[in-house]
């Protein structure tokens, strides 16, 4: 898709990459597979697009949009693809965090970036601390699943976002990684 995007084929002038992915995702359940994780799970493009649209709408309600950051800390599952796409559809930049990092490192990065939300799970492998100043979206929590299930599935438009999405909006946070931990003294 990227070579076609760069060449200007399949993308309207001024369009942003997630718009093209939404069109690609509209091909139906048999159009191919979306993300796949090491646990054998997979999503069709239609399922990926639907999940991303629902989460993007929720993130917009939490304040996500252009010039805003949404952090995520997730184990390797198809959810990562849906979350990345949702953040882009909301028009926000994303800050990826590894759930295996020390809590102090994650806390420092969240404090520096001031994201509007942290998308994570409640699974025991995720050690991401909860911060009162950062709203957490726990993807595997029953109330979150219910909320997203009742959220419209249509692609977002500029009218749905706090401000229009632009090709010049950065997709990732410019927050530098935290410095390495101090060496241990024996």
From TrEMBL:
List the biased-composition ranges (Gly residues).
24-40
Stretches of Pro residues bias are at: 164-186
Q: What Pfam families does the record tag this protein with?
A: AMP-binding
**Region Disordered: which residues?**
18-41, 148-186
Q: Please list the residue ranges annotated as the AMP-dependent synthetase/ligase domain.
A: 38-147
Q: Where is the signal peptide?
A: none
Q: Does the entry feature the keyword Nucleus, yes or no? A: no
* InterPro entries per record: AMP-dep_synth/lig_dom
Q: Which domain of life is it from?
A: Bacteria
Tell me what this protein is called: AMP-binding protein
User: Source taxonomy lineage?
Assistant: Bacteria, Bacillati, Actinomycetota, Actinomycetes, Kitasatosporales
């Amino acid at each position: 898709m990227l070579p076609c995007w760069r060449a200007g084929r399949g993308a309207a002038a001024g369009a942003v990459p997630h718009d093209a992915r939404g069109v690609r995702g509209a091909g139906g359940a048999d159009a191919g597979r979306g993300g796949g994780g090491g646990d054998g799970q997979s999503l069709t493009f239609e399922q990926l697009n639907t999940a991303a649209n629902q989460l993007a709408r929720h993130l917009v309600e939490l304040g996500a949009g252009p010039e805003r950051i949404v952090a995520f800390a997730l184990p390797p599952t198809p959810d990562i693809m849906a979350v990345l796409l949702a953040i882009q559809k909301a028009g926000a930049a994303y800050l990826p965090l590894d759930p295996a990092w020390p809590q102090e490192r994650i806390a420092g990065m969240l404090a520096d970036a001031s994201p509007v939300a942290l998308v994570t799970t409640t699974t025991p492998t995720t050690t991401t601390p909860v911060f009162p100043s950062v709203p957490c979206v726990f993807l595997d929590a029953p109330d979150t699943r219910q909320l997203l299930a009742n959220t419209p599935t249509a692609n977002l438009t500029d009218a749905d976002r706090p401000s229009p999405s632009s090709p010049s909006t950065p997709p990732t946070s410019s927050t530098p990684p935290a410095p390495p931990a101090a060496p241990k003294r024996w």
